[in-house]
Amino acid sequence: MTTDDINQGGRPSIGPAISVAYQSELLDAVGRAANRESMTRAEWLRRAARDALPPQILQSWIRPSRAWVELDSQLASVRDGALDVETPKAERECHALSYTATVGELRALIEQAITALPTAEAEAATADAMWEIADGALTPQTAEAVGRAGAVQALRGLLEDFRAALPTDTHDVKFRASLDDPDADLG
């Protein structure tokens, strides 16, 4: 046992201590959340950090891809151009049309991909498997079909998540780009 293994502070050793600075509002919110769950802030923060990590099997894949980062950057640049008060109105309107077309086309392509998925076959395979499991006779062919059905359902979920992550402000951007002052308070 080394001196590092001996806990000098009286609390159970969990791991090395770190120091993190939080805005007071965030720290208050963490404290309230921890109290609601009858745990210390430290316990709540450890759990939040653990739960925020992706599952190990997909960890390296889940990191934002270059394509995702490029798309995000492209959309932000075009949107910024549409709302830049220093940019001439006609150019802002062109940026807004490009932004709206890009987001709209992405939504349409995602919808086409979702529609093309063999969802009915996946549901049928899952139903067949339930019957076979109930009868105690799951076949290898049905097990494979259930695996393919799971892949269909997973891809559908990923596509729906991607669609949900797309901007929803295209009409507002297009409208504001047509104003003499896109930053005008319309309240």
Could you please describe the fold and organization of this structure?
By secondary structure, this protein is an all-alpha fold. The protein folds into 2 domains: 18-52, no CATH class; 65-177. It is built from 8 helices and no strands. α4 runs antiparallel to α5. The longest helix has 28 residues, at 89-116. The N and C termini lie far apart (67 Å). The mean pLDDT is 83.
| Total beta strands | 0
Count of discrete structural domains:
2
The helix-strand sequence is HHHHHHHH
Rounded to an integer in angstroms, the radius of gyration calculated over CA atoms is 26 Å
Binned strand content? under 5%
Shape: flat
Distance between the termini: 67 Å
Q: Runs with pLDDT <50, length 5+?
A: none
Structural class: mainly alpha
Mean pLDDT: 83
Summarize the main sheet: none
Number of helices: 8
Approximate helicity band: 55-70%
Structure keywords:
2 domains, 187 residues, single chain, flat, 0% strand, mainly alpha
